[in-house]
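Lab manual, section 2.4: Encoding a predicted structure.

Procedure: take the sequence of the chain (264 residues), apply the prediction step described in section 2.3, and record the output as structure tokens. A sample record is shown.
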Amino acid sequence: MPKFLRIGVHQSNVSGYTSKAWAIRRVGMTVFLKWGAVEVLGAGDGRKIYWTIPPREKTIRCRTVERAQDYVKNAIARRRSHRYAPLSGNILSRRRRANSGSELEQALATILFIDIVRSTEKAARLGDARWTQVMNHYYATVRRELRSLRGKEVVTTGDGLLATFDGPDAAVRCAAAIRDAVRTLGLEIRAGLHAGEYKVVGADVFGIAFHIGARVAAKARAGEVLVSSAVKELMPQAKVRFKDRGVHQLKGVPNRWRLYQVDH
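Recorded output:
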């Protein structure tokens, strides 16, 4: 699978990016994508690259082999223009030995996922140089709101971001503040929140709660902040008004979940 890697901070990106990797593979008329944040250890031939959390994946089914080939070609060209470098080695999933000294901890938090709506269209319209400037301002704005409400940034994924909060009230207010703030940049986001437990091993975090939060965000419309029933049940009644958005099957997640829109 062809892979590409982008590391650290570039001169055109003053706000900073988490190191990230992107991979693409074609099988006949089907294209498989995989992307996410990575940790890079070492340098040169001894360098090892690990996914920090399980990567996001997407499958694109084209109508012909030619269309699939064109999709791959164009996608690779875009990544190279975004300062990704080809990566020949594998991207590993971290495995820790039982006696490594890292203890498994369990944490409870409200998890926030955000991403930009129609970001590919906007990037194509603005061009790489202007889009890079917009993204710098975007991440600076998002991080300012996180700091003000004591959110903890976990990882960035392309134009998205995952953060955790000690309580749901701050998380909901932060999502709404980010949505309103980035509109001054001509951007719309979608946001999803879920409250649940997750595992912590050293600097790594993982758990089904993250996947549920991501799936809630995927159900949100432009400018919408959606929460799972777990978040709503933890919120003080008078703090925020919610609109019932019905029961949904979240892709890859057991059971059906009732979702609520934050009423703004």
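Check your result against the sample. The chain is about 30% helix and 40% strand.
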